[in-house]
């Protein structure tokens, strides 16, 4: 099975208020192994970045002014994700922004959820760890995944971290760190976008696939093998 772990950075919190995508990062996972194939693009949003967002990702207006428009990177990005299941943390946020960008293309007929199955790791984490913090940072700490000592968030970096967290949550295999030791882990498709039908369909909720029962079972078995209580507290 081919999956693409995806993250975005944006100018602000709400695409409905005109905020835009400024970075897309994607990591390929095939049959539960990170392949090393990846996609990254920075995008000129043609608007200013909110100070609060800048504090998170550090992408300045000056830097973004020299980046390509979304329309210039869309074809390569859509080719990369074509046919894959998308793995996204808090998918509603990223999918909302990406659908808003797709709508701005000259031929927008499809939404992201029409092109790919979407798996929300936040939904999975909430089911596995009810009542606990389930941000990407919290999950990284809980599963011992290296946070790469990041000062700022970045879409590609966060996608790399999320890939490791997702694999750990669903049974292990790839890039887990225990007490200083590491288990090593082994970019033209048509956009299919068309201009009609968008004004109502943009309001649709993303097709988010909840955690599968076999993933929950694998997760609990993995925690038992690690000697971790499934109701462990947040550190």
Largest sheet: 6 strands, mixed
Reported by name, the CATH topology is Nucleotidyltransferase, domain 5
The helix-strand sequence is EEEHHHEHHEHHHEEHEH
Low-confidence stretches: 174-209, 225-235
| Helix run count | 10
Shape: globular
CATH superfamily: Ribonuclease H-like superfamily/Ribonuclease H
Strand content: 15-25%
Instruction: Give me the CATH architecture, please.
Output: 2-Layer Sandwich
Rg, Cα atoms, Å? 18 Å
Report how far apart the termini are.
Answer: 34 Å
Strand order of the largest sheet: 3-2-1-4-5-8
Structural class, judged by helices and strands?
Answer: alpha/beta
What is the typical, i.e. mean, pLDDT?
81
CATH class (first level) name: Alpha Beta
The helical percent reads: 25-40%
Strand runs, count = 8
């Amino acid at each position: 099975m081919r999956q693409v772990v995806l993250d975005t950075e944006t100018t602000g919190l709400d695409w409905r208020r005109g905020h835009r995508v400024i970075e897309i990062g994607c990591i390929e996972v095939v049959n539960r192994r990170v392949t090393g194939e990846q996609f990254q693009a920075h995008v000129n949003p043609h608007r200013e970045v909110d100070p609060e967002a800048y504090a998170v990702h550090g992408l300045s207006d000056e830097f973004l002014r020299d980046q390509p428009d979304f329309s210039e990177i869309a074809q390569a990005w859509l080719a990369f994700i074509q046919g894959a299941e998308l793995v996204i943390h808090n998918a509603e946020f990223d999918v909302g922004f990406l659908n808003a960008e797709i709508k701005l293309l000259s031929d927008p007929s499809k939404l992201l959820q029409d092109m790919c199955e979407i798996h929300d790791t936040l939904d999975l984490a909430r089911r596995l760890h009810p009542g606990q913090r389930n941000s990407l940072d919290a999950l990284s700490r809980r599963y011992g995944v290296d946070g790469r000592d990041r000062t700022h968030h970045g879409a590609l970096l966060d996608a790399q971290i999320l890939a490791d967290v997702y694999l750990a949550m669903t049974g292990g295999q790839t890039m887990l760190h225990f007490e200083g030791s590491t288990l090593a882990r082994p970019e033209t498709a048509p956009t299919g976008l068309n201009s009609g039908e968008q004004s109502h369909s943009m309001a649709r909720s993303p097709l988010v696939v909840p955690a599968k029962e076999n993933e929950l079972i694998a997760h609990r078995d993995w925690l038992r093998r690690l000697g971790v209580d499934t109701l462990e507290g947040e550190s």
